[in-house]
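Subject: for your reference before the review

Hello V.,

The reviewers asked for a structural picture of the protein, and I figured it would be easier to keep everything in one thread rather than splitting it across files. Below is the amino acid sequence we used in the manuscript, unchanged from the supplementary table.
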Amino acid sequence: MRPLPSVEDLGEGVWSVPVPIPGNPLGYTLVYVLDTPRGPVLVDAGWNHEDSWRALTAGLEAAGTSVSDVYGVVLTHFHPDHSGLTGRVREASGAWIAMHKADADLVRGFARIGADEQRDRQLRRAADSGASAAELERLAETAPRFQPPAPPDRDLSDGELVDVPRRKLRAVWTPGHTPGHICLDLEDGGRLFTGDHVLPGITPHIALYDHEGGDPLGRYLASLAQLSQIPDDTEVLPSHEHRFSGAAGRAADIAAHHEAKLGELAGLLDGEGASLWELSAQLPWKRDWDEMEVTSRRMAAAETAAHARTLERRGQAVCGADADGVLRWRAAGAAAARDAVGP
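And here is what came back from the structure prediction:
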């Protein structure tokens, strides 16, 4: 667990409030507080836990305000370490909640299908990815029940100015980590809130959980390229770790990391094909595959799926289901040659 930093006055009406994520190695989410004449606007809100709530309310008091004064919460994305406390903040203050429309649509969809159906979909996708019967049973027992965040009041579009009185905070759509992830450009302060899009020392989870469509890694790489024009002296305020500068260089490093991983995955593909579970077991991770809990294996396989989909879009891989319905990925050239020869 990362040590919790102190509440900081960053100057020019911006504060940083670390909100813990109990039991998570990330340690905390950095919630940013922007002073406005109508009351503070929060960038993200933190995990839904009593310890997190206490840290957020105490942090706001240290910043000279209170949760009841909050005017609005703008979310970089819907993940629970960013959105979990939004409903509680709104109840305490009447604040609006805003996020990009793509994530807002997902949140409303989650609320419609419910936690049980969401879990069943997870199990079906894990089965499609090659998880064994024992792993699926374990996943059914241990997978956390997903609780969708409070639905937003306002849907944001790319380039839209957020309602932050006497400030210029512009939404910059950077999909990949989630479909509606946004960075927030504080144009009157020379600062860029990057959420999980660009972090100083780690790379965000880029995953394909719905095998039927989409290319989240391709979109993420395109979103990283958007940061190439950010001046080196722009202060980057991420949601985890610490502030830094040099957004363009860090984005280029992250892109190179993913290109290397794409190359590793392409090297594993052949004409016979392999499931996402089998491919993931051969790739390097922070923990060995054999030591991973099944929930971590599911996340790793989803990340492998995102890379495999990008290879498919680039014409380097093909995917098809076997007789048991398990998706198997092959090298595009090898698959074409095999099909030409026949069984």
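For the response letter, the relevant points are probably these. The two ends are 53 Å apart (CA to CA). The chain has two domains: 8-104+149-256, 114-145+269-341.

Happy to draft the paragraph if you're swamped.

O.
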